[in-house]
């Protein structure tokens, strides 16, 4: 990252982006806008109800799940409805472009796989792409076409906007290594995809009052109406990791995010993640991270 010789302004938190007509987004399935706004004082770390592709041109840090990624220069950012994020701004204003859309909008008249399977939107994928001048100019031109098109009465404008969004997605995919795109088409892959999507739908935890309804491989297998041995074999075959390992990793990721971004006490976080007693949560967290929840919170 480049550093400036003059002192940088103190970081501020982005709580919400430009005010949106939520009902309009729900009805149309998409909304695009140019971003040039000051920052709201209170941070918001929560799941949105839509997918997002943004061209960010301000110096900021994206807190994405349990990761933090600095953006300095022109960047493409991808976000999905299943992973909460917030933006910490290091400049007076947030600038760029943003396009919000639902999966139903993107899949209209299309039988393509879920967006959740895209390397850009899946958990653990790469949500941020730093652009050079040529790439940034191209991305800006696409956003401007989307903005212009959404205000027209053209009969097939939704198809055209979907094409523009796909162009932005493909521009980012070209920056990914080819092995990222390996797709499995067999029955094991379908079962694994269903399991991973079901796992993601459990998060984020928005209240500590209700415990996770699914905690074990047996719970997920019952929900998917398959034998637990079949689920375990499929997940292992496709991902190389056990069902239990995926569940544990996701729970730990959510625990880190809650410890970092909320003021809930450790016992409440543990209960929300399915641990009846805080000692069980403490032992589980330490086993997987080498640190107690309280020590992790104090360190971040």
UniProtKB/TrEMBL annotation:
<keyword id="KW-0805">Transcription regulation</keyword>
<protein>
    <submittedName>
        <fullName>Helix-turn-helix domain-containing protein</fullName>
    </submittedName>
</protein>
<keyword id="KW-0238">DNA-binding</keyword>
<dbReference type="InterPro" id="IPR018060">
    <property type="entry name" value="HTH_AraC"/>
</dbReference>
<dbReference type="Pfam" id="PF12833">
    <property type="entry name" value="HTH_18"/>
</dbReference>
<keyword id="KW-0804">Transcription</keyword>
<feature type="domain" description="HTH araC/xylS-type">
    <location>
        <begin position="200"/>
        <end position="299"/>
    </location>
</feature>
<dbReference type="InterPro" id="IPR009057">
    <property type="entry name" value="Homeodomain-like_sf"/>
</dbReference>
């Amino acid at each position: 990252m480049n550093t400036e010789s003059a002192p940088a302004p103190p970081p501020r938190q982005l709580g919400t982006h430009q005010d949106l007509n939520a009902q309009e987004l729900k009805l149309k399935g998409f909304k695009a806008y140019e971003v040039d706004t000051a920052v709201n004082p209170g941070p918001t770390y929560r799941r949105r109800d839509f997918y997002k592709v943004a061209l960010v041109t301000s110096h900021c840090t994206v807190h994405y799940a349990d990761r933090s990624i600095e953006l300095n220069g022109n960047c493409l950012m991808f976000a999905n409805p299943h992973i909460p994020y917030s933006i910490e701004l290091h400049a007076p204003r947030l600038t760029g472009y943003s396009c919000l859309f639902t999966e139903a909008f993107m899949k209209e008249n299309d039988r393509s796989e879920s967006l959740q399977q895209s390397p850009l939107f899946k958990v653990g994928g790469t949500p941020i792409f730093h652009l050079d001048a040529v790439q940034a100019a191209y991305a800006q031109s696409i956003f401007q076409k989307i903005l212009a098109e959404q205000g027209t009465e053209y009969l097939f404008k939704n198809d055209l906007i979907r094409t523009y969004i796909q162009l932005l997605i493909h521009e980012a995919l070209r920056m990914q290594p080819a092995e990222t795109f390996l797709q499995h088409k067999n029955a094991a892959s379908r079962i694994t995809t269903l399991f991973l999507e079901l796992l993601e739908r459990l998060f984020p935890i928005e209240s500590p009052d209700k415990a996770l309804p699914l905690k074990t491989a047996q719970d997920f297998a019952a929900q998917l109406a398959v034998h637990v041995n079949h689920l375990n074999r499929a997940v292992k075959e496709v991902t190389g990791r056990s069902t239990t390992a995926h569940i544990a990793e996701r729970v730990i990721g959510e625990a880190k995010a809650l410890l970092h971004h909320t003021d809930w006490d450790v016992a409440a976080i543990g209960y929300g993640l399915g641990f009846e007693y805080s000692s069980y949560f403490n032992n589980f967290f330490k086993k997987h991270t080498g640190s107690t929840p309280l020590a992790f919170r104090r360190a971040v």
